[in-house]
Amino acid sequence: MGIKTSMIFFIFTAIFFCLVYLYIPITKPSIAVSSNNILLKSQNPYPVTFAYLISASKGDTVKLKRALLALYHPGNYYLIHMDKGAPENEQNEIAEFISNEPVFSLVNNVYMVGKPNLVTYRGPTMLATTLHAMAMLLRCCKWDWFINLSASDYPLVTQDDLIDAFSDLPRDLNFVQHSGQLGWKLNKRAKPMIIDPGLYSINKSEIWWVIKQRTIPNAFKLYTGSAWTILSRSFAEYCIVGWDNLPRNLLLYYTNFVSSPEGYFQTVICNSEDYKNTTVNHDLHYITWDNPPKQHPRSLGLKDFRRMLLSNRPFARKFKQNNKVLDKIDQEILKRQRRRGYTYGGWCSKSGKNSCSGFQSENYGVLRPGPGSRRVKTLLTRLLSTKNFSKRQCR
Predict the structure, then answer these.
(1) pLDDT tens digits, residue range 149-176?
(2) Cβ count within 10 A of residue 68
(3) Judging by beta carbons within 10 Å of its beta carbon (0-12, 13-18, 19+), is residue 338 exposed, middle or buried?
(4) Residue 167: Cβ-neighbour burial (10 angstroms; 0-12, 13-18, 19+)
(5) Structurally, how many domains does the chain consist of?
(6) Ranges 104-118, 142-156, 168-182, 288-302: which has the least confidence
(7) Which residue segment(s) compose the domain that 226 sits in?
């Protein structure tokens, strides 16, 4: 009787999880779309456009503001998700920050989730948040790639650099670090079944473990990898619409899967005949681990700066709040002279040496890529070479 009750509960939570991401409210705090803004974007498009999801939780307001300003570019779109577990004053602080930032108000491309999810560590609620964001950004904006980051991430190149580096790439590429060899994750992640209270509770708690385990599926092959991805618009649409039903079937399966963000997109894309050959096996992040590895990656510091730069990767994680290495990245890479300043780019006017002070409409569409673009192009050239690209896809 207990097993039957558990299975019925699994079915209901899975159906709820599948349906809930079809709708998500977005808060645009005091930001109005002007006809001037629409005219501006139609006349001076950028080569490519990114849609960012930046996730944050309790105590992340300082990190979130800094990361958003460092990542900001008028050609992109930004959706902020503050975990429902964050106190109301922190939610309001971020909403007011977005509303009061003059450039955000003028360009109208920074949004905040109006009814955020309660995110449980290792549960599927983070995956739900990502799918929520993808669904809403697909409905409201035109973009080429979707990038999910956290407040603990930071860019290692300017957005002008990243736009320039991606401008010549096929738009169907998906940067998904993946492996079909699950190793220890087979017994620790794939076989256990869990219940995430965050799917139905207003109070945050740990995931619940079910005693009975399940067998490995034979209808599809499981893949695992990094939770940090850069997904094409086409694949994002496939995940949300799911026209051959594979994404929905796998979503039901991953509802009760430990750390589902590290396997869902990998398993969907590698089991899809249409998309399995579009994968670039890399997450474009610089991340280091202790030896032996712990549950979370190392926090990066000044001693990691040179290795970060030599990695040619556009993003790094994770960083503690206002670590000195962030100041070094700001000064030497992003050319930000103030923690509240924007990253240097062709879109903003200069006030003093290498400093962005504001937005000028005549500069919309102008790119000023620097050394960061060359570094990222070097990495992309290696990843997309004949030697690496096809040989590392969905094995």
Answers:
(1) 999 999 999 999 999 999 999 999 999 9
(2) 22
(3) exposed
(4) middle
(5) 1
(6) 288-302
(7) 2-392
